[in-house]
Design goal:
The chain has 512 residues and is mostly helical. It has 20 helices and three strands. The protein has a three-stranded antiparallel β-sheet. 68% of the residues lie in helices and 2% in strands.
């Protein structure tokens, strides 16, 4: 819910009332609590997770959440009262904060009842205290450390960020404009000045807090003093990603989307990077025998403990990577290979979860895929708006154009069919039959499970939702016929292969 609302809301909601500072503390707290809660208190989280299996989405709390979010957006649209902090300004600030907090709390109740939230807090003990202290420290450290930026005493840090951005930008922006005196860098059409908020100091402070707390909580499992290397390694990685974030921001603005660059991407990309690095360190470090003590069992990955992860993680990874790549694009999604890479990584992580699946194919599967292709074209009535692929490819160098098309085709024929069939036929088709979907044979179905999973698959394809729903019905049919998910993957891959051939040979870019 929060993920869906994040980009459109953050693109126009201002933070001058202090929401930015409060947001840092909240995100730091949630990141620390969720990461350490899973790693340190897995039994309690597992117990709550078992109770959630049969829990249905609360439509009542969803309605309340939408009301609170509407109030938040309305108060955000009202003008600030300037320096006059009278009763009206105080009342407006109170309504802004109250509606925003209520929207966040109610979004949690959509998926977990208040009783389950209480059980989760009790089961994790004093972890919330550590997380709150860590969030408060990170927030206060950042506020103080911002004053160091561009100070003579830390000039090497300033130069490091500026030089990294210049190094990464040069291959993409030939006419690069660089002004070290004002810390300005960019293209003739879009440039930025790297200030304290973009310096990377904030991420370094957050990672320092995270890694110190992680070492303290897992001190019995770590081998010291070498475990202390986690601290500089995580700080260096987040510092590097901050430079990548600034480069992406400039490229977005240079591509003709300054509103995206200065809005949601500018305000949220840093938090995305922090969460990726923090969670990556939390899950990777325990598995490094060089850092852990002998005899300490490595932490199991979610793919090994949660049966839904192998079916949903590849699809979720593609969606998440798609949000990032679209955020860094104007019309042409030049970072589409990020989706392919995310799917490959997720499939590799979850590879053990697919051992029980049958991938044997039958001659009927390619025929079903070909039938979907014919139906897809027959149901296509247009119009076909320009999606920017043709002009975007024309602007690339020949090598880049070929590489993009090769990766886009491989993704369409291999990773996308596998990820989508795991999610819609492997998970949803059986989840609508029973909460214990893993025990449901692929031949077992209900008309509701077939219709609902196919309709959701159709909605995924936007304006092609009718053809997408029909495709979902056919893919479900070939899955049920022999009880084999591999048939659906092959059928889906065949459809996408024919569509890719149409795109590459006839230039029908709208099919992508």
């Amino acid at each position: 819910m929060i993920l869906i609302e994040w980009l459109p809301v953050s693109s126009f909601v201002h933070t001058r009332r202090g929401g930015q500072s409060g947001g840092r503390a909240v995100v730091a707290f949630l990141s620390l609590f969720l990461a350490f809660g899973y790693l340190r208190n897995r039994p309690a989280i597992r117990l709550v997770s078992d109770q959630v299996r049969d829990f249905q989405i609360s439509w009542r709390y969803l309605a309340f959440h939408l009301l609170a979010m509407s109030a938040f957006l309305e108060t955000s649209a009202l003008p600030m009262q300037g320096t006059d902090r009278g009763f009206l300004a105080i009342l407006l600030d109170f309504a802004w904060y109250s509606s925003g907090i209520c929207a966040i709390v109610l979004s949690g109740f959509i998926f977990l009842t208040p009783r389950l939230w209480r059980a989760l807090l009790r089961g994790t003990g004093n972890l919330w205290v550590y997380a709150a202290a860590g969030g408060a420290f990170a927030w206060s450290f950042v506020k103080v450390s911002w004053g160091w930026w561009n100070n003579p005493s830390v000039m090497p840090v300033t130069d490091a960020t500026f030089n990294l951005v210049r190094l990464f930008l040069r291959p993409f922006v030939p006419a690069l404009i660089v002004d070290r005196a004002t810390l300005s860098i960019g293209s003739p059409t879009f440039a930025v000045s790297i200030g304290d908020a973009c310096s990377g100091v904030e991420g370094a402070g957050l990672m320092l807090t995270f890694s110190v707390i992680w070492l303290w909580l897992f001190r019995r499992e770590c081998r010291f003093p070498r475990a202390f290397l986690v601290i500089p390694a995580s700080i260096a990685l987040i510092f590097l990603l901050n430079a990548v974030r600034i480069v992406a921001l400039i490229l977005i603005g240079n591509a003709g989307a300054p509103a995206i660059a200065q809005g949601g991407f500018h305000s949220q990309a840093g938090w995305i990077a922090f969460n990726v690095v923090a969670l990556g360190c939390a899950f990777v470090a325990p598995r490094l025998t060089w850092l852990g003590r002998d005899g300490v069992t490595a932490v199991q990955s979610p793919a090994e403990t949660n049966p839904t992860v192998p079916y949903l993680l590849p699809f979720a990874s593609i969606l998440a990577a798609g949000m990032l790549s679209r955020a860094a694009s104007a019309r042409f999604e030049w970072l589409y290979p990020l989706r392919f890479a995310a799917a490959c990584v997720a499939l590799w992580i979850c590879r053990r979860g697919y051992k029980g699946l049958s991938w044997r194919i039958n001659w009927e599967a390619p025929l079903a895929g070909a039938a979907v292709f014919v139906a897809w074209l027959a149901l296509d009535r247009g119009p076909h708006p320009d999606n920017g692929i043709s002009s975007g490819l024309a602007a690339l160098a020949p090598a880049g154009r070929v590489a993009w098309l090769v990766i886009r085709t491989i993704a369409a024929v291999i990773t996308v069919p596998v990820a989508e069939e795991l999610a819609f036929r492997g998970f949803l088709l059986r989840r609508f039959v029973s909460s214990d979907f893993g025990a449901v044979d692929f031949r077992r179905y209900t008309w509701f499970s077939v219709a609902a999973s196919s309709l959701l698959f159709g909605v995924l394809h936007g304006g092609h939702w009718v053809a997408g729903t029909l495709a979902g019905l056919i893919y479900a049919g070939v899955t049920i016929r022999r009880g084999n998910l591999g048939d659906a993957v092959v059928a889906h891959s065949t459809t996408n292969a024919f569509l890719a051939a149409m795109v590459l040979t006839r230039g029908n870019w709208y099919l992508w």
